[in-house]
User: Fold this.
Amino acid sequence: VVRENDNDIMAETFRSIRTNLQFLLDGPEKKVIQFTSTTSGEGKTFISSNLAMSLALLGKKVILLGLDIRKPRLAEMFGFANRTKGITAFLAGDPDDKELLFDQIIPSGVNDNLDILPAGIVPPNPAELLSKKNLDNAISFLKEKYDYVLLDTAPVGLVTDTLIIARVADASVYVCRADYTAKNDLNLVNSLYAENKLKNMSIVLNGVDMAKRKY
Assistant:
């Protein structure tokens, strides 16, 4: 929904999120933002991809990384024909093979400043792959080339993958959705915050129907 020269309410909303995140990321070396939610369907891929576009429109080099490797959606969302290219090829390979990593990156097709590194082939051992030092190396390599590295990760209420990935993130955006996320799920958000399991946490409330005038 975020496009060049577009000034509708959605574009403005993502500008506001972008500005707030830039305050959270204090310093140019802090550039890795993780997106998660409690369960599927709350809009984390929608939020992360549109925020990536919003940052790209600032003239920043942005890469959106598909780390929900159990249920990948980025390749489908951006209409890529090739569904085998992706981060899992690097995670399963040589951790120092920078060329292998950059070979998996696909231009977004919507903005020259935005590249996509999709999940790739679904592996049989996601948690083990994400625990390897390959992920740490991948993030280091990407930080050399990009101003922002956005991580679209799995729902934290369903699998442990997101907490494993949290070690490489500088900030975490937790997506909740109006009329969808259960209020009890906020107990999980609060416990993750209290135990500092996700760094620099913030919440985005997605899908609010402004016409309903709810409290």
Notes: The chain has nine helices and seven strands.
